[in-house]
Design goal:
The protein has 153 residues and is of the alpha+beta class. The chain has one domain (6-135): 2-Layer Sandwich (Alpha-D-Glucose-1,6-Bisphosphate, Chain A, domain 4), CATH 3.30.530. It has helices spanning 17-22, 27-30, 114-135; strands at residues 6-13, 37-40, 47-51, 57-66, 70-75, 89-98, 101-109. The chain has a 7-stranded antiparallel sheet. The model is unreliable at 148-153 (pLDDT under 50).
């Protein structure tokens, strides 16, 4: 069986690409759907970093920033969770207009093990559900950066 080192997601979002794009480049908007604190410099080479509720930090760099249609950034965890050190994997996000909304297509490459693929798949699914809600103006639980099974703070 071939090794799976990437995951892919496609989802419709009820907001235009320019709005959805901001949820990946504006720190306040990013933490409305993932993490509790963010430092973002949305330009090639700029910092892409956010902190989860439990203090785990995801750190990478923007590689491509093509407003409002495409983002590529590196991704990894400062504690090396799942063997992913900062910047060791790559997330590609394409935002295509779909009527009044957006079709988001995300590919996360460089996930080094099946447990990493499974955990990141669960995390992306949970947080993309939050993104779908906040992009259409629905408030979400501020503690929602937790994943099922995570201990309460």
């Amino acid at each position: 069986m071939p090794k799976v080192d990437l995951l892919e997601r496609r989802l419709p979002i009820e907001a235009p690409p320019a709005i959805v794009f901001e949820f990946f480049t504006d720190p306040a908007k990013l933490v409305s759907w993932i993490g509790v604190e963010a430092s973002l410099e949305p330009r090639p080479g700029g910092v892409f970093e956010f902190v989860m509720y439990d203090g785990k930090t995801c750190r990478g760099r923007y590689v491509e920033v093509e407003r409002p249609r495409r983002l590529v950034f590196t991704w990894g965890w400062t504690d090396g969770t799942f063997g992913l050190t900062p910047g060791s994997s790559v997330v590609e996000v394409n935002l295509d207009a779909d009527g009044d909304g957006t079709l988001l297509h995300m590919i996360h490459r460089g996930l080094v093990s099946e447990p990493s693929v499974e955990a990141h798949g669960l995390g992306w699914d949970i947080h993309f559900a939050r993104l779908v809600d906040v992009a259409r103006g629905v408030a979400v639980d501020p503690g929602g950066s937790r994943c099922p099974g995570d201990p309460l703070p």
